[in-house]
Amino acid sequence: MSSQEIPEENLPAEQDAHVAVADEKNPFADPGLPPHEHRIQDIDERAARRSERTVALLFTVSMLATVGFIASYVAIPHDKSVFVFPIGHLNALNFALGLTLGTALFCIGAGAVHWARTLMSDVEVADDRHAIAAEPEVKAKVMADFRQGAKESAIGRRKLIRNTMLGALTLVPLSGVVLLRDLGPLPGTKLRHTLWSKGKLLVNMNTNEPLRPSDVAVGSLTFAKPEGLEEHDHDFQNEIAKAALMIVRLQPDDIKDKRELEWSHEGIVAYSKICTHVGCPISLYEQQTHHVLCPCHQSTFDLSDGARVIFGPAGHALPQLRIGVNDEGYLEALGDFDEPVGPAFWERG
Amino acid sequence: MSTTETTESRSRGKAPAGERVADWADGRLGIYSLAKANMRKIFPDHWSFMLGEVCLYSFIIIILTGVYLTLFFHPSMNEVEYHGSYVPLQGQLMSEAFSSTLHISFDVRGGLLIRQIHHWAALIFLAGMFVHMMRVFFTGAFRKPREINWLFGFLLFVLGMFTGFTGYSLPDDLLSGTGVRFTEGAILSMPIVGTYISFFLFGGEFPGVDFVARFYSIHILLLPGIMLGLVVGHLILVFYHKHTQFAGPGKTNKNVVGMPLLPVYMAKAGGFFFLVFGVIAVIAAVAQINPIWAMGPYRPDQVSTGAQPDWYMGFAEGLVRYMPGWEINLWGHTLVLGVFIPLVLFGLVLMAIAVYPFIESWVTGDKREHHILDRPRNAPTRTAFGVAWVTVYMIGLVGGGNDLWATHFHLSINAVTWFVRIGFFAGPVLAFIITKRICLGLQRRDKDKVLHGRESGIIKRLPHGEFIEVHEPLSQDALYTLTAHEQYKPLEIGPTVDENGVERKVKGSEKLRAKLSKSYFDEDGQIPKPTVEEYKEITSGHGHH
Q1: Cα–Cα distance for residue pair A17/A249, rounded to 1 Å
Q2: Nearest CA of chain B to the CA of A146: how many Å?
Q3: How far is CA A298 from CA A280, A284, B175, B315, B323, in A?
Q4: Which CATH number is A191-333 given?
Q5: What is the extent of the structural domain holding B325?
Q6: Rounded distance, CA B341 to CA A162, Å?
Q7: Which residue on chain B is closest to A313 by alpha carbon?
Q8: Stretch B353-382: mean pLDDT, rounded?
Q9: Residue A28: which of B85, B188, B479 has the nearest Cβ?
Q10: Is B259 part of a structural domain of the chain?
Q11: Does any CB of chain A come closer than 8 Å to the CB of residue B72?
Q12: Does the pTM exceed 0.95?
């Protein structure tokens, strides 16, 4: 849309740049710059000297503060703590260094600003503005120069050069894109599998011992990992990000979901600890209602009903791990999760 | 010839050292021409013009302290056992990134201070940009010729958010790791490409062993490099356009009234850098920020409650929290709308404020330069839109902290979430209507003041017993200032049938434009400012109370 479509009279009138004297005709006219009002420092040399001393004092305090900074750095041990009212206990070195550095810097600033405000001239001056856009002659000259240059390059006439150049310039960034390929492996089915498999014992995250059904009391929340996964393993972080498990015991009668009951053992159910929203570990358990809450975005799941979402932004239920008990009486997995754990993604399906 | 040489050599010998250095530089850089235009450049004075300075100075402070931190920080996710001086974590497995951050905080003297200055300055930088942007918005300083500088500033704000995010993710602590996990979940929600982007960003599955090193080069090189270029461009344009000013006696669209760069603004602005730095240093001395030792190293199966991003990411966090968990499964694919919509909304809300200058200039059709700032009340629709936008942003922030609102004010988390869900739609509409009414009210008051003078506080009793308050006429300066603003007329489409009965086709965009123009500038969009006739009518004695 060009400006021509807007009729001129719709735009407000240009403001009068000239200083107009207010008169009978126009009481709203611009009276022009008000006369300069003197500050006390402009007329009283004693006041000016007072300002000078204030500025000098501020600069001196700054120098002293820098000395204080160096002294604190040398003298205060880095593990000493100090009580500062009303903040509380602070690291003494951090407090001293910050305070002295802050004072040294602030006083330079305060001195400079006080100097500017009280001693430097505060006469307001008007400067002319000039239009940002060039004059028509300048534009004409530029356009002529450009046409001359374009003509001399023959880019318009020799189409073959132009087209192949554009082609080459379009293709060359592709090398850069291709180079990014090795930033990471392709996803494949990695997000679909975890370390869990048939016969893997459920190991208590805190004690590092395999869990027996008797270890899981009603109303408690237990975190577990697959047997064989140790903190020192090089891929521990990646594996625990998918395999982390939370275990609770419900009264079998309380379990509303049929499959959940089938996949449980004596009311003990095992669910992925990784929230299906964006992957935070779920860690808040309400014993009475059997709800678990993700502390990050408050998605709430009902563990007595297939861990379906009852509130919050998660899009689907937590995956359940099918568990049983082996010959020695330990809780074991009866396979991997049958769906991907964690946040949903395009290929999840 | 010999005479000239001797005078020249003598004058050269006499010239003070500073001048000789300047001569030397001028011969190579042409600094005198540059100084001629800029040394006594005039800058207008208003408190709100220093908000941008806060941003500039905190940006410099961030760079200075950031360089220091790189001397000690190890951007590596190699697992190490901690043996530093922070006792509670001794023997713990953690990444080198985390342990070197502990080293900076506990074993490098002053390291904690610099870390805290860096982090505090980053929060202030982003807050400063937000407030500065609002100042520019509400005063209409984004109008021609400054639209490009508006976009530069907007880009700085957005890049600043991502620089901040990549920065606080570097220590690889439990809190920031949770934020990175959230980011990964959000990336996964992108249709078709999400999983691939996630695998390429993290070098495989989350968390992998690469992201700290990758975020590091983004945080210290890529983004700040772009931002530095934008900051320089932003400042060059400020110099080139010359600063805007508020209307007032002697101030026109063709001049700039204020004090010169040398010495006043050299001292004020230079001093202000030290003031900002000093205040941030004192904050860093007394106010702890991001105590990563209290959170511990990141593990994907652990989390703390009350996990919050830094404030500038809180708006995005809020969108993700109060969005319902919609998921569509079709043909073996999952469309994760519950996360993807917030991701898109995040971009759209930011874009809405970025493109506003172009929308307004389309509606007004005004192609002239504007150097006189609007008072927010005199542009009610713009002001109302700005407040509505801020409302959306703030509701996002409230939603991003819904757990903290719930725990601190003993509210139900569900109630808080439902409040922000409704507020996201109702809040901006209400804010728009209320703001517009307030602006119109203030315009009426200005008009009243111009026509009837200010309330003097003097009560006069008339002979017949009536009490009236004496109003004093405003000074010439005030009269001018209150009537200096420009008022547009609403755009009319005009007759759609010409004198020969031929119907003219009116494009949809033209209709929309006329409609917008009407809502901006008809009698519900602005109060006509007092005219000279009205003023004379009233001040000539008739009807004056």
Answers
A1: 83
A2: 24
A3: 10, 10, 16, 16, 11
A4: 2.102.10.10
A5: 52-367
A6: 43
A7: B325
A8: 95
A9: B479
A10: yes
A11: no
A12: no
